[in-house]
Design a protein that fits this description.
The chain is α/β, with parallel strands linked by helices. It has 15 helices and twelve strands.
């Protein structure tokens, strides 16, 4: 698979300061480390086995009605919908992935171009690195090529207990001209990551402060291990506008961090480590379908996005029928974009064709119709 080669530019930018105080030097080293970590995340996601093996999304346990006489013309099937006041041509968000390095910039711009062409929403990766080093702002900026897309800014919620506050959140939104802010939750990833931030105490109250202060919608998402009904209720009380469940069954970020940690270990240790990853903590989480159902019940009236292992148009259709307002995809788009712009566009075009086919054969002409379908758990199918 072709891959955009790692550039040294980001680390050179970070280390270009001539005379720094000791605290500034520490910050320079932290930013250089963060930039390298972001490039390692891309490499691992592209080339390593980072998906769940023992947990599936759970969508295979649900079935949409099949109508041999749908009474509609497939050409009339309309996959468009409105999300946060903007019309999307398909209920799909290009989930937050990257930024902060030259590689991240190239991918973000490929995703933004595709989002504009296919009428999708898009989120950028965590912008903390650019808040600390404004020279990296351009690795997140995409408005010049996608002025009208629904665009999400992104920060780690845990940073609200550290260096970031309301002003940082406002800055992240302003930095890229975003329509909304995503605060991501990742306690398992932080626990596995060397030096990870694990002080999640009283974080719901910090999120609430951000929701009250910002003039744009605030969403909260997991990174691939799911959101429970309990967490959803806490987020409702905090005043969030939406929740992205990011359930288990797709990419395991615990595995990504384990593989990154083991990248410099001897092969004999890596072999043992791989066994731990396959059957251990890297396989922990709430399946996407189950997380979606729990969050929808606990957060009635809020926007709910279904992500985590979404791979096909049928997954998108099942998500909508189970209560999602939209869906999100990351890894397949990253891997397609690493091949070529054309491969990325072909993947998205195929997704839309699959979604249209599933809607047609289910008798749903619009996304609104799709939401009304009676999806059934396999084993209790009504004919």
């Amino acid at each position: 698979m072709p891959y955009i080669r790692t550039s040294k530019r980001s680390s050179e930018q970070v280390t270009s300061s001539r005379k720094c105080s000791s605290s500034e030097k520490v910050k320079v080293l932290e930013n250089e480390s963060n930039a390298l970590r972001k490039d390692e995340h891309i490499r691992i996601a592209l080339y390593e086995d980072v998906e769940f093996h023992t947990i599936t999304t759970g969508f295979e346990r649900y079935s949409l009605p099949y109508e041999a006489l749908p009474e509609i013309n497939r050409c009339d099937v309309d996959t468009s919908m409105v999300l946060f006041g903007k019309r999307l041509l398909m209920p799909l968000v290009i989930s937050p992935m990257t930024g902060g390095t030259d590689e991240g910039r190239k991918f973000n711009r490929l995703f933004a171009e595709a989002a504009r062409r296919f009428g999708l929403a898009m989120g950028v990766g965590s912008q903390r690195i650019a808040l600390e080093d404004p020279e990296l702002t351009n690795t997140f900026e995409v408005r010049d090529i996608a002025p009208d897309i629904l665009l999400f800014a992104n920060l780690g919620a845990i940073q609200l207990n550290n260096s970031c506050g309301v002003e940082s959140c406002i800055c992240a939104v302003t930095m890229i001209g975003a329509d909304a802010l995503i605060l991501h939750l990742n306690p398992l990833q932080e626990s596995v990551q060397p030096g990870g931030d694990t002080n999640f105490a009283d974080l719901a109250s910090r999120i609430s402060e951000v929701c009250r202060a910002l003039r744009v919608p605030v969403l909260v998402k997991e990174v691939g291990h799911g959101i429970s009904a309990r967490t959803a209720r806490l987020l409702v009380e905090a005043g969030v506008a939406g929740i992205d469940v990011a359930g288990a069954g797709g990419t395991s970020w615990a595995k990504v961090e384990m593989l990154r940690l083991g990248s410099n270990l001897p092969q004999s240790i890596l072999a043992k480590k791989g066994k731990q990853i396959d059957g251990g903590i890297g396989e922990w989480g709430i399946p996407t379908a189950e997380s979606l159902i729990a969050v929808r019940q606990a957060a009635r009236g809020l926007v709910v996005i279904s992500s985590g292992g979404i791979r096909t148009g049928e997954d998108i259709a099942k998500s909508i029928a189970l209560g999602a307002n939209a869906t999100g995809i990351a890894l397949p788009l990253l891997r397609s974009a690493a091949v070529s712009r054309e491969a990325l566009h072909e993947y998205l075009a195929r997704l839309k064709e699959e979604l249209q086919t599933v809607m047609f054969c289910s008798g749903a002409r619009t996304i609104k119709d799709l939401r009304k379908l009676q999806i059934t758990r396999i084993g209790a199918i009504n004919f």
